[in-house]
Amino acid sequence: MSNSTMYQFRIDEQEKAETFEILQEMGIKPAQAVRLFFRQIRKTHALPFPIEHTPNERTAKILLQSDAQKDYKRVNSVDDLFADLHK
């Protein structure tokens, strides 16, 4: 028998209730669903579903800008980058 470990995370109460209800209708316990999810990640080295996220208005606007409009900074090394990030 393999050793098991516990992992906790926070989730919105309504999201939890709705998801648990759907899982119950499917005949799957939440812990089983999480284990299935983890197994698929290990097997495929990817999330087992496409990520379909629409960027918010600010992000969409920035993505549509040309590189010249994005005010990129140039650094000479990774050390310089981290030094600049910690300013």
Q: What's the total count of β strands?
A: 0
Spell the H/E element sequence.
HHHH
C-alpha termini separation:
51 Å
- Which stretches are poorly predicted, pLDDT < 50 over at least 5 residues? none
User: How does the overall form come out from the CA principal axes?
Assistant: elongated
Structural class: mainly alpha
Structure description:
- With 87 residues, the protein is mainly alpha-helical.
- The protein has one domain (13-85).
- Helices cover 52% and strands 0% of the residues.
- The chain is built from four helices and no strands.
- It is elongated.
- The N and C termini lie far apart (51 Å).
- The relative contact order is 0.05.
- The model has no long low-confidence stretch (mean pLDDT 90).
Briefly say what this structure is:
With 87 residues, the protein is an all-alpha fold. The protein has helices at 13-26, 30-44, 57-64, 78-85. The chain has one domain (13-85).
Label this structure with key terms.
0% strand, Arc_rbn_hlx_hlx, mainly alpha, Type II toxin-antitoxin system RelB/DinJ family antitoxin, 52% helix, 87 residues, RelB/DinJ
Topology:
Elements: H1 13-26, H2 30-44, H3 57-64, H4 78-85
